[in-house]
Amino acid sequence: MIGQMRDVTVRETLRRVWGYGGFLPLQEEAVRAVLDGRDSVVVLPTGGGKSLCYQAPAAYLGRLAVVVSPLIALMKDQVDALRQAGVAAAYLNSSQTREERAAVERELAMGRVALLYVAPERLVMPGFTEWLRQAGPAFFAVDEAHCISQWGHDFRPEYRQLRVLKELFPQTAVHAYTATATPQVRADIISELRLREPLVLVGRVDRPNLVYRVQPRTDRLRQVLAAIDRHRGQAGIIYCIRRSEVDELSAALLRRGLRALPYHAGLADAERRANQDAFVNERADIVVATVAFGMGIDRASVRYVVHAGMPKSIEHYQQEAGRAGRDGLQADCLLLWSGADYGLWKSVLEPEAAAAPGALRKLGEMFAFCQDAVCRHRALATYFGQEYPAASCGACDVCLGEVTVADDSGGAALKILACVDELRGRFGANHVADVLAGASTDRLQAMRHDRLAAYGALRDVGKRELRGWIEQMLAHGHLARSDGEYPTLIVSEAGRTVLRGERAPAPLRSLRKAAPRPKPAAPEGEAGGRDLFEALRTVRRALAEERGVPPYVIFSDASLREMAWLRPTTAGTFLEVKGVGEWKCHEFGERFMAVIRAHAAERT
Ligand code: ADP
Ligand code: ZN
Questions:
Q1: Multiple choice CATH, 210-396, 3.40.50.300, 3.20.20.80, 3.30.70.1560, 3.60.21.10
Q2: DSSP string spanning 435-494?
Q3: Which residues line ligand 1 (CB under 6 A)?
Q4: Which fold has domain 526-602?
Q5: Each residue of 445-499: pLDDT tens digit?
């Protein structure tokens, strides 16, 4: 009975503070664990709404809750977002001045803070734990809890110190949150944090709003530009393996007039921070980054993520691609891969194999994922140990029919092998493709390669497709690259068995001309909706600048879209928009409604 009443009031908090009509899957169970004081581990995919699981009970209880979070930059944004919604939140970290810290400590002493964000190293400082003991926190929430596990993709040694939490605060519940779904990581979290009979909640890892595409890399810049082209003016992240690639690619995009910025560990702190801020505050559309540094890049409305190189594990891929579409709206994920990426990672990981067992296996699984032609949503769910019941997802290149096995791909594979053989392993992929395509370049003629048996053998195929097939055959291990400064193509041992007819060639995927994508059904009145959406974005940016916070902290894109669709002009109707709580309605409502009214006046 009492439990039921409590649930009603938490829902009320949800509506009043956040403007949400209900819970997302498993949020309610997670919130109940917090209110019951039972330790918990909550695994929800990115965008699954993990933060609400501890923020809502903290706001409801009005007692101090301590949140452990790994990144200082994210802490500030989270706290800004809570304050804009009228929740008393604060953080303590090394980026603050002495005065700022003292101000927070005063607030804390007066018991005015409901959510306190701290870095793990601060949490275990003797003075701080002493103070905490007196304050008597209602509970601890450990965000990005996979950082405690060596099996995770982002191990942070300082998280190991959290072991002492249960010793110091045996009576206080500890709740762990992560998007990493492997059982190994989960078990590690439980044992490292010494959780007691925790409630374990594991959500569906699948992200139905993400559209996955996986393509062999044939021309990095051209492929990246094509992806950007579909998303002009929208936010995107492009991941590269190396810093030098980040620098080159971001420069190339800038030269084309795109608002792109680089982001990697080699940049000076100030520049990195400036670039990150520019992206989060919508002064830049595109961030080109190394994979190691994605975590600080936080913008819920990222519409596409491109991997210009293959990540070293599916966990990494899931995490990075997952930064797209956190607002629940459709977003695109494109992965460009090549056998060279595999070779590169292998050379990096092999010497460390003793230190990071399993890394090579994970690399192999990632590579296999790239080459497979099964539904990407299904492949990812299966990898994380979950079933994927739908026959077709309708949201990946395989299910959309963009990946097809080439006609007579077996015959083509044999022709490619024969050509490489005929060239005696002395030429690179580009030249091999020229010969097969029957190109008439000067180089080719000078070497009289137009007289080879293989010349023009795959004339109808097109050079881009040929390059893709060569990559696939490298991936299958039927071709190999020689070592040396100018790697050339050679036929591998396995390839020889194919040439001799002892083994069947592996099927080659064709990149059919991208069929025009069916547009998602446009909501009624979309034509005017788009201008209005842009106008609302402008108000949001202005408000964000006035308050010195990122725009998404004011309202998400999803909320703006709903505003453009519902066009509320009174406080009562404005509150109906998802993501509009009472505080935000009071603070921002008039500014947005003024734009909506002006828009309506213009159109009549
Ligand atoms: P995660 O940390 O799991 O990646 P977030 O906490 O950032 O996810 O939430 C993802 C998005 O979902 C945010 O835009 C958030 O506002 C929204 N959201 C969270 N809970 C709800 C809910 N109950 N109803 C509607 N939207 C929600
Ligand atoms: Zn699919």
A1: 3.40.50.300
A2: HHHT---HHHHHTTGGGSTTTTTTTTT-HHHHHHHHHHHHHHTSEEE-SSSS--EEE-HH
A3: 20, 23-24, 27, 44, 46-52, 300, 326-327, 556
A4: DNA polymerase; domain 1 (1.10.150)
A5: 899 999 999 999 999 888 888 888 887 787 777 888 887 777 899 999 999 999 9
